[in-house]
Amino acid sequence: MTTDFHAQYWAYTLTVQGSPDSVDGLSRAISNARVDLNPHQVDAALFALKSPLSKGVILADEVGLGKTIEAGLVISQRWAERRRHILVVVPASLRKQWQQELWEKFFIPSVVLERKAWMRLQADGKPNPFDLGDQVVICSYYFAAKHREAVSHVPWDLAVIDEAHRLRNVYKKGNKTAKALSAGLAHATKLLLTATPLQNSLMELYGLASVIDPHLFGDPASFREQFVREPDEELRNRLLKQRISEVCQRTLREQVLEYVRFTERIPVTHEFYASDAEQRLYDDVSEYLRRDTLYGLPSAQRTLMTMVLRKLLASSSFAIGATLERLLYRLRELQEDVRRGAAIDLHDDVEEDFETVEEVQDDWEHDESPDFENGDIDPELLAQEIAIIEACSQLATNIQSNAKGDALLRALSQAFEQADAVGAPKKAVVFTESRRTQDYLYRLLTSNGYEKRVVMINGSNNDEAAKAVYAEWLDRHVDDGVPTGARAVDVRAAITEEFKNNAAILLATEAAAEGVNLQFCSLVFNYDLPWNPQRVEQRIGRCHRYGQTHDVVVVNFVNERNAADRRVLDLLSEKFRLFEGVFGASDDVLGAVESGVDIERRITDIYQRCRTAEDIAAAFDELRAELDEQITTKMSETRERLLEHFDEDVQARLRVHRDLAQASLDERGRMLLNLTRHELGNDATFATDHPRFKYHGAAARHGWYSLDWRVAEAEGLVFYRVDHPLARNIIDDARQRPLTVQHLTFNYAAYGSSIAVLEPYVGRSGWLACSLLTVNSVTDEQFIVLAAITTDGEVLDGEWCRRLMRLDAMAKDVDASPPELTPAVTTQINGHLREVETRNGRYFDAEVQKLDRWSDDLKLGLERELKELDSEIRAKRKESAVALALADKLAAQREIKALEQRRNRKRRDLYEEQDKIDEQRAEIIDGIERQLRTTHAIQRLFTVQWTIQ
Q: Helix/strand/coil (H, E, C) string of 829-840?
């Protein structure tokens, strides 16, 4: 039997705030997450948490190794510490994916902050919507830079920056977004995620390092002097690797093949020929979009809207047809001079169909061109535009079937046959960029043999089929705690579950490429192919990810009557290598282009200005040549020497972290299960062969709970963890229960295995005290202090006590008064305090060493300027000596005198500047010393008399 003393000990042990830079301290964050335990991710999280004085690190794992999971572990750790001012800055297209991952894997709520959410929060009484404190804030680069002032006023506990290579040129003039982000987050601890911290120049490492901490290196000039211009490459690389390895960690795919299995990508292209009517519609709309003057599109958004309309045109006649009807309506309104402003704004209408308009707009440069005034409108040109749109709209209406839709039916049939032949699931996800095309494909598929086998997922999920799936899902999970209460999250989970368990085809807009995990599906159809390579990678990554057991077939469609479409596919396939291989596009390639929006913009320009196949070929050749310059391998060898650590030490460290983390998780799971069994009693039935139980009490939802998230997910159970509401209630009850002194008789014989340290004490008795030690320093930390003595005065350490608490015991009234246990307790306390002081000493030494190198860098820069002046003076003296004419000699001497005066002033300034650097260094060290001051408090939890029998 267990006792209330056991329960209180377990409850406190499960919830104490440990040191985050240890595997044991991180284990609470891991145990609350629905993620597979991969040692390289634990290693990366520990690296990010290694010092509370650090201003941040760069996690630079190769593609496919889960940098998002690594960041999630760090966020989860901060969240558990109740340090909840957390910001995540990502490319606009990744915002929803991050939100979904944080909730599904770590149960951490977040808000995507964009224009509408900003206005809503301010209307709800939040003057600074960044300052929430109860949700992680996710926003795009553009949005964070635009609201730099608001960002800078929040006391961030952590700022995560994904695709951080966008900031690597922050040191250059004109890099407005990077400079605004760096300034706005100067006070925050930062976690930068990028597989390409170094692409073209060593100065990029300086740029990212300066974003993290301005004291990692000196100024750009001193960095160039030491690391760029240093002729001894071996010396340079050794010194720079030593410096950068303190803030940058990179794991290679080769290092984790022992733990992670990767499958292949297999590309398939299906050609189709657009009908004459479809081709005419394409040609007519294309010519319309090339007109010099367009009243139907707002001037400030013409480039963006042109790209969107071209994508809808390529998607289906149904997508572009509905947009043309709306455009025609607005042009007629404009012709009648009715609410001119509303008449030329297509944004809201297009956004209903092309869901990623706002995300794309967030990344595109913004044109400030004013819209047309009434007096600027030429009635004749407006009438011509209306006539063109009328004809195009009628043509689209008359088209009842699309050649690409017919090609999809053929491709699905072939793909399902091949999947069946290799034993892969007969499931396919079909991506389209248009909601209206999605509706068309739903009608097409359900009327061609796939009725009741198709589900749709999009940005709103308000169609009747989605509502029905959602209602059934709610009924199915009514008592198991799976629903979150947030419809947007739950309906996506319901549709995904329906696809996994019942449907064969998932029709998905871009919304499903953001945060939905489909590793049970191995067929990906790009019905519409995005021009942004990062978005294509994101789509395929929904299926081709960790946990996928089959090769993933990626099917693309190409219109053989459209030369530009063929060249886009070739570009994405050959240049970005998106569709084949084990890993798809490498981070080196995607990172080189920094933002796929630039590619979208260039391709839009080609479609706009090129009419003939020859012009199209020349334009794409030019684009490929430019990409060749960006996707360079000239720094690959240097990158390998500086950032990659492929050696036996890494492998050994990963194995140690794997073993320690698993042992810590196993121990936490054992405590939580034992505590739950003790507290629930007859209100739950516990399985004998698995860590699960069925709850039938009154305090929470009934049903089965499992401590293994994989089992819970596979069998539809509740994932039970320390932070689950039922567990929190149980833990709170056990912690708050008042306990009086009692006698515990521990049953060693019933334990079932030998515990060597306890065996000599069988038949003996003594006393045990359990206390809570709270240490307040640069971080708050807690320790469960166990101290014991025998009846004859022998002092037993904390490890002995922890082994004792593993035994079952019977409690009864005590028959003696407890002796003085303070000396034994104090010994344990002092040991923990020394541990904290030793760790703080390491933190202090690391910061002082960093500041010493920073000040040396700056002084080196000052001394370099003196050396350059001395070199100039020597050159002028030689020039004077060889001059023949007196005038030339005198002129040289005047220049020498001026240079000597500059040198003398610089020499005097040097000492003053060096003094200032030393003063600044001393001020920073004083601040560090204040942070590291330590206080502590001790709380006695319980005291028991013990006997082992």
A: HHHHHHHHHHHH
Torsion of CA 478, 483, 487, 490, to 10 degrees: -110
DSSP character for 224? I
Element (H, E) at 408: helix 403-422
**Could you state, in order of their start, the residue ranges of all structural domains in the chain?**
54-256, 276-398, 836-926
Determine contact, residues 761/789, Cβ cutoff 8 Å: no
CA separation for the pair 946, 3 (Å, rounded) = 13
The pLDDT, as a whole number, for residue 586 is 54
Write the DSSP symbol of residue 755: -
> How much is the mean pLDDT over the chain?
84
pTM (2 d.p.)? 0.74
Query: Is the CB of residue 528 less than 8 Å from the CB of residue 431?
Result: yes
Beta strands in 404-536 (DSSP E): 428-431, 454-457, 505-508, 523-526
Q: DSSP class of residue 513?
A: G
Q: Per DSSP, what are the bridge partners of residue 140?
A: 90
User: Angle at Cα 387 formed by Cα 382 and Cα 389, nearest 5°?
Assistant: 95
* pLDDT score at 343: 44
- Report the C-alpha dihedral over residues 832, 833, 837, 842, rounded to 10 degrees: 10
User: Can you tell me the distance from the alpha carbon of 847 to that of 826, in angstroms, rounded to the nearest whole number?
Assistant: 31
Query: pLDDT tens, 217-226?
Result: 888 888 887 8
Predicted pLDDT at 697: 76
Q: Residue 138 has which token pair?
A: 């996710």
Task: Compute, in degrees rounded to 10, the torsion defined by CA atoms 141, 143, 144, 145.
Answer: 80
Q: How many CB atoms lie within 10 A of CB 309?
A: 24
Q: Is the pLDDT of residue 368 over 50?
A: no
Separation CA 374–CA 229 (nearest Å): 60
Residue type, 69: I
Q: In Å, how far are 201, 343, 394, 402, 731 from 399, measured between CA atoms?
A: 53, 27, 9, 8, 65
Tell me the CA end-to-end span of the chain in Å, nearest whole number.
Answer: 14
CATH class of the domain comprising 54-256: alpha beta
Mean pLDDT over 544-559 rounds to: 88
Nearest to residue 357, comparing CAs of 29, 610, 88, 114? 114
DSSP string, 567-592: HHHHIIIIIS--SSBSS-S-HHHHHH
Sequence-ordered list of residues with C-beta below 8 angstroms from that of 917, at least 6 positions apart, any chain: 855, 858, 859
Q: Identify the helix (H) or strand (E) that includes residue 766.
A: strand 765-776
Quick one: tokens of 920? Answer: 């600044």
For 78-92, what is each residue's pLDDT tens digit?
A: 998 889 999 999 887
Give backbone dihedrals phi and psi of 425, rounded to 5 degrees, phi first: -60, 140
In terms of C-beta density within 10 A (0-12 exposed, 13-18 middle, 19 or more buried), how is residue 24 classed? Answer: middle
pLDDT of residue 339: 44
Q: Are 432 and 509 in contact (CB under 8 A)?
A: yes
For residues 195 and 63, the answer to whether their CB atoms sit within 8 Å is yes
- One-character DSSP codes across 856-911: HHHHHHHHHHHHHHHHHHHHHHHHHHH--SHHHHHHHHHHHHHHHHHHHHHHHHHH
Q: Cα 189–194–197 angle (5° rounding)?
A: 95
Residue 836: count of CB within 10 angstroms of its CB? 21
User: From the centroid of its chain, how far is CA 631?
Assistant: 24
Neighbour tally for 846: CB within 10 Å: 15
CA pair distance 49, 840, nearest whole angstrom:
14
Structure tokens at 245: 């390895």
Q: How far is CA 543 from CA 103, 516, 591, in A?
A: 19, 9, 21
Q: How do beta strands 248-249 and 56-59 pair?
A: parallel
At residue 642's C-alpha, the angle toward residues 245 and 844, to 5°, is 15
Phi, psi at 628, each rounded to 5°: -60, -35
